Each structure stands twice: as C-alpha cells, then as structure tokens.
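Researcher: For the record, we're logging two predictions in this thread. I'll number them. Prediction 1 follows.
Model: Prediction 1, sequence and structure:
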Amino acid sequence: MATIAVIGAGAVGGYYGARLAQAGHDVRFLFRRDLAAVRERGLRVYSPLGDFHLEEVAVAASPEELGPADWVICSLKATALESARELVAPCVGPNTRIVALMNGLGIEPRFAEWFGAWRVFGGMAFVCINRGESGVIHHLEYGRVSIGHALDDPAENATLEALLTSGNIETVVAPNLRYARWEKLCWNIPFNGLSVAGGGIGTQTILGDPELRETAERAMREVVRMGNADLVSLKSPARLPEEEVVGRMFSLTETMGDYRTSMVIDYVLGNPLEVEAILGNPVRRARELDVAVPTVEALYALVAHADAVNRGERSLLRPEDLPSGDSSGVPRLDP
C-alpha cells in the first residue's frame, strides 16, 4: 500500500483521497476549514456508487505534519498555484511522485520547475462533486480521471493508473498530457465561462437557452481547434476529434441536472476565480499559434472583469450613480 498526501483536500481532493483510503492506502489529508470536523467525526462521502464513512482519518494542519509520502495529490485551486511549492515540498522524498489534480493550462510546468519533471503528473477529473457541511462530500455523478506524465513516460503513467484503479477510480491514460489538458478545457471553458458571464447560472440554463447553448458550442469548437493546433506544434500525432468531443460533452452535461460549476460557486461566494488558468492561458496560447478564438476571447474578457469586481478592483454602477430623477442616466429630448 502507498502513502499518499492530499494537499488541497476540498471536494475533489477529499473525494479521490477518500476513495484511496477506503481501499487501504495510508492517506493523509491537509485540511483547513474541515480540520476540526474531520478529526471529530471522520470523513463522509455520499455517492451514487455507494455512500461510505471513514471514521478515522489522518489529518494535519500543516504539510510538515504530513511528512514525506510516496505520492502527493495536489488539488489546490489554480488561483493558489504559487503557494503549492511550499505546501508540497515537505511531503517530497527521494522517490515521491506528484499528481497535479487541478484545472487549467500551464500547471505542470510550475511543478516540474520546482520538483523535476520526472516526478510530475497531471490529472483531469471529469466529475460532478460539491462540498457539503464540514467533513461531508457530495459526489453527484461521473468520476473519471484522465492522466498524463509530464514527460509522457508510459511506465510512469502505468504506475499512476495502477494506484488510482486500486481505489476503484475510473482512470484513462491520455495520448499525452497536453491532450488531456485540452480535452478537459473543452468542457471547462464554455461551461465555467458562461456560468459566470451569465451572471451566476447553472448548466441547465446554458443548455436550455438557444443563444447560450449556441455560444457554448462555438466556444467548445474553438477550444478543440486551438488544442489541435497546440498538439501539431508539439509534433504530437494525437488529435481531438471535434464532432465526437462536442457530442460527448453536451450529452454528458445533459445528464448532470442544473450543475453549478466550480467557477460559478467561487463567483457567487466572492472567491478569486481560476480565470487565468482556465481562460487566460488558453487564449494566450491561441494567439501564439495564430488561431482565431473570438468566442473564447469574449468569455475571457467578461469573466476577467467579473473576477476583478469580486476582488474589489473594479466597481459596478449603482442607482445612486445615476442622475437624479432619471433612472436611465441618459440625456433625452422630449417630443
């Protein structure tokens, strides 16, 4: 059995870590908000695959308490990427492998710079999941993890695949790591982006409104095209099949109910948004490749503005900002 340190034990890290602990691995969780509750009551998962309760959970308030591990699963928000180094480092020994179970583009290069590419993997979780009360995780649907090694080493991929499948986690080894990143972005960019650009909406609103649905499809097709251009630039033979990807992503989303994306939850709660990792970095890569992505660029601009408002860096108009006696604030000529 492996020793596993989970850094960023929110809904995603908590769920996959709990699955591995259920399978008998020595899993140690770095908790912040849920620390006291998990120490007192354990970790409970509600899932269509079967509910379960880990009564005794190894938890810590600092990475130093976790100590070196065989594997580190880092599932921090991309907004906290720069803090990952100091959180992960105390858990890294001579043979430790690191799985960046995070959203966005440009994640693994930072871990490779800090710890060496040979030990770094990317993991893309295709899962519907939310946190409940402290110490409770609600797994709603799906759960597949697509993986890739930073150096695309087949033997290393097989090692991670074996670990995850031992926890009954559906695992797919992607053709390469960049392919896996772009495949996840095919869903994240349109649905996370529109959920915030739409003012705080769920997936059923996007699917049910013809204009929003068409916008989501345009954005998704743009992601496929910039992903394939990126793969060409890397001399990879792998390609994202546009029609298959669009059909599959929309079919999966239809079954989710009115799912709240991770980005819209952060938006509603006033938290920083993963706008640069999910939208900004792909847009910048498309510009480098000279690929036109007008829909994705528009989503990036709108979500970046919403994030700036959330951070208090920009303001919105209020009723008191308008001229007295005129709710429109626009000069007009009476007939």
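Researcher: Logged. Prediction 2.
Model: Prediction 2, sequence and structure:
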Amino acid sequence: MPPQSLFDKCDMAKGRHIFHRMLNWVLPERCPCCGTITAAGGSFCVFCWQKLEFLGPPWCRGCATPFEFDRGADAYCAVCIANPPRHDGIRAAVKYDDLSAQVALRLKYGGKIGLARVIAQHMLRHLPEEQEQLIISPVPLHWTRIWSRSFNQSALIGKQLADMSGLAFVPDILVRHKRTPSMRGLDHKRRREAVASAFAVHPKYKGALKGRSIILIDDVLTTGATSDGCVAVLKRGGADWVQIFCWARALRGDGTQAGTTISFDA
C-alpha cells in the first residue's frame, strides 16, 4: 500500500480542525471558575484569569509561603525554622480562595474530570529539574468514597501530570483504611487527630520505598493535616523525599487554613 500523500495528510488536518471548531460551537469550552464560555484554546475567561493568584518564587523552601523579596532558593520562613515540616516542600499552582476553589469543586463534586488536565498543566511548571527515580502518587480515598464518587480526583490529576512529564505514576502506594469524619469547621489539631492512623503503605510496596522520591498529589491544601499524615507514612515506609503538589493552597494568615470557608473532605 503506497504511503499516505502529503495532500491526504493536509486533508486530514483540515478535517480535524473543522471537527474541533464544530465541537467547540456545539459544546463550547467554559471557564472552570465561573462557567463563562471562553475563547478557543483558553482554559479560563479573562476576568477569572486576572483574579487567580498564581504562586511561584520567591517563596519559603519548606512551605512555599511567598516572600515579599527574594531571600535565596534555600531560605526558610520563620515558621518552618521553628517547626520544620515533615514534607520536603509544597508546590501549589494558585492561592486558595473562593474563585480557585470552584475549579476543585467542579472536578470533585461536579464530575468535570477534564479539569484534572487543566490543573496538571499548571502544576507542570513546578516539577523539579532533578527527576531521576521520581514517582507521582495521589492522596488516597477510602473505598466508600471511591464507590460513591467513582473516581479519586487526586489520582486523575496525578495521572495527567505523569502523562505530561513522562514520570512514573503509581496510584496505590498508599491506602486509606479508615474513613475520616467530615472535617468541616475543625481546627488543625482536630484534623490531625481525625486522620491519625488513617493511612498505610500498601503491603505490596513495603520495603520498595527505601530512598525513593515521591510527589504526593492533592487537590486542595488548607490545614495540611491530610497530606502531613500521608507524608509521615511514606517517610516511615522508607521514602527519602516527599513533596506535596496541589492545585490550590491556603496561605498563612488569609483566614482559610482552618477550613472555615469551603469544606474539601477527601
């Protein structure tokens, strides 16, 4: 059979372009924050894009709290110096607020699973340069929540990030063997108590995590109690380095770290 001609390839490309234009007309892309129809190829409407607070350096090496000026890549904030975190850094795409929360809500409860790719695209810029033996793994859900929701939003995000970066994705390193109660309105101490002993390394990975580097995927980080519980288990299981990646995170002092605005029970 003769090879496909250049003209045939051009015709196919034109056909795909027409198909995508027709699909966008019938099912136009909408802003994940407000639902407004967006321009072709744009994830967010102009208004929401300008309102979202994207995070990046300069920030604390430990918790990634933004600094007003560059203190150097190895600088820690006063809180991390006084109380060093268990994790090896937090990397969030945006600041947690009512606007960014809508993206996570539409994915988590609205079933808009395509938003996992949008979120992963904005996480991609935070991946470390050194990626040897790096593993991506999500914060797990209890089986009853998987059954009721049919998916783990953190796993969807992690899979998309792995596909974009070429990194290994291992979705079941951690298991959640205890269903935690609703954390709505709980302070950080009570949230930590609620997730105590909720996670464990899957038996098939015991002994296999020694010296490994893991990116732990969560959708939203408010108090950090859930992710801290996961990090502690991974480190006890032998992991040498664990960094938390999320779509949105509460910043210290903005009134959201106690989970007082919107509940994101895993």
